[in-house]
Amino acid sequence: AHDDIRLTYLDIKSIAEPIRLALRFAGLPFEDRRVNHEQVAAMRASGELPFGQVPLLEFGGERFSQSQAILRWAGRRAGLYPEELQLRCDEVEEALVDMRKSFGPQWYGAALGRSPATGELLVPLSAAQREEVQRLLNDTVLPTHFARLERRLGAGPFFCGERMTICDLSFYVLAEGLRDGSYVQGVRPSVLDGCPALAALERRVAERVESAARPQ
User: Fold this and answer.
1) Percent of the chain with pLDDT over 90
2) What's phi and psi for 99, nearest 5 deg?
3) How buried is residue 175: exposed, middle or buried, by Cβ count under 10 Å (0-12/13-18/19+)?
4) Which candidate, 181, 161, 198, places its Cα nearest to that of 13?
5) pTM of the model
């Protein structure tokens, strides 16, 4: 149907999972299409991807890309991105985007990630460089980012006060993935040590997610 929603991404959580969660909180049925890297390459070659990458949202007869744009759209539908909290929510969301950017060399083993034209790795790193990236992520980069988020959260209970928003979902997916090792390889869960308020936030969002997943 014209208004059917289809979300296409790899068969992992990563940047698509907050979108999936927001759609579920909104009560919007959607096709959760999971593809592999070869299928993404074929979609890129065929011009199916507006910016050459996934996630891809198909809705209303149109295709949309860019995870942050899709997340905000889904968040509005779910009441998780209210106008009066937009500035604070965006501030935290962009801080999380900055954090994810630092994962690029670790994800791809290359300084510039993948070519937007061909998908090939750009400026591959040596084994020694990859080891140094991993050390700095664990010892400096991530603990610093999380300490700043801990201070910004304050008394909470959510980043924007009493109301859960999309930035809480994004943090939850990231933190959960770092704890179980699924988000980025080589990062120790200890990067979240010393952030008890963030740990409490992670549990709080997990409870909301689990409650939303239960049959009503």
Assistant:
1) 92
2) -65, -45
3) buried
4) 181
5) 0.94
pLDDT score for 213: 80
Which tokens go with 194?
């010393």
Give the 3-state secondary structure of the chain. Answer: CCCCCEEEEECCCHHHHHHHHHHHHCCCCCEEEEECHHHHHHHHHCCCCCCCCCCEEEECCEEEECHHHHHHHHHHHHCCCCHHHHHHHHHHHHHHHHHHHCCHHHHHCECCCECCCCCCECCECCHHHHHHHHHHHHHHHHHHHHHHHHHHHCCCCECCECCCCHHHHHHHHHHHHHHHCCCCCCCCHHHHCCCHHHHHHHHHHHHHHHHHHCCC
Query: At 175, is the pLDDT very low, low, confident or very high (cuts 50, 70, 90)?
Result: very high
* pLDDT at residue 92 greater than cutoff 90: yes
Q: Is the dihedral of CA 121, 126, 130, 136 positive or negative?
A: negative
Q: What is the pLDDT of residue 216?
A: 56
Residue 107: band (very low, low, confident or very high) from pLDDT cuts 50, 70, 90: very high
